[in-house]
Design brief:
This protein is of the alpha+beta class. It has one domain. Helices cover 20% and strands 41% of the residues. The chain has two helices and eleven strands, in the order H-E-E-E-E-E-E-E-E-H-E-E-E. Strands 1, 2, 3, 4, 5, 6, 7, 8, 9, 10 and 11 form an eleven-stranded antiparallel beta sheet that branches. The protein is globular, with a radius of gyration of 19 Å. This is Secreted protein. Keywords: Signal.
Length: 189
């Protein structure tokens, strides 16, 4: 093998390994993009006896998608106050929680969340609480959220490290359901 072919080979190996590392966040993002416009019903797996979420119909609607933002309203029964907002920037993903009142105004506790610290994996992204969250909700400073997605399920998870607080919702993405009405604070156009 001559020097030029060897250099091309090395460049190809480097590019493949670099793009593979960077691609996992993008692959995760693409999986979410494939769900855009669809809604899915799910179940609360943990905690099993939660008063706020237990026994209520849980629906997520992947309502808005762009190259850098995905908004997923999460409905708990008739409560349309929650939207998970994911932002893709510099091969990282940011998760924020947009909470609204019925009149559309922002809740006092909103826009909390965290950012991935690396490119994660194709099927899972992990979001430790950010500094803004720590200032807004001191007890949530040890929160770690993670989202998984594969061919059959989407899960939204929360663990507050150092406490028994754990939360897990599992959505069946093999069976889309009818899209719900607009979440609070959205124009339904």
């Amino acid at each position: 093998m001559n020097k030029i072919h060897f250099l091309i080979f090395l460049l190809g190996c480097f590019t493949a390994s670099f793009s593979q590392d960077v691609n996992e966040a993008q692959q995760f993002w693409n999986s979410l993009q494939n769900l855009c416009g669809k809604s899915f019903e799910g179940t609360l797996e943990l905690p099993v006896d939660d008063e706020q979420f237990g026994g209520k119909r849980l629906v997520m609607h992947v309502r808005y998608c762009s190259d850098s933002i995905i908004k997923i309203p999460f409905f708990v029964g008739d409560d349309r106050s929650r939207t998970w907002v994911l932002t893709y920037k510099d091969n990282r993903i940011i998760l924020k929680h947009d909470h609204r009142h019925e009149d559309g105004s922002e809740d006092k506790i909103t826009q909390y969340g965290g950012s991935t610290t690396n490119t994660g994996q194709q099927g899972i992204q992990v979001f430790p609480a950010d500094e803004e969250t720590k200032k807004m909700i001191p007890a949530a400073s040890t929160n770690v959220w993670w989202i998984t997605v594969d061919d059959t399920t989407f899960t939204y998870n929360l663990r507050r490290l150092g406490t028994p607080r754990v939360f897990k919702v599992v959505m069946d993405i093999t069976k889309p359901v009818e899209n719900p009405e607009a979440p609070w604070g959205w124009e339904d156009n």
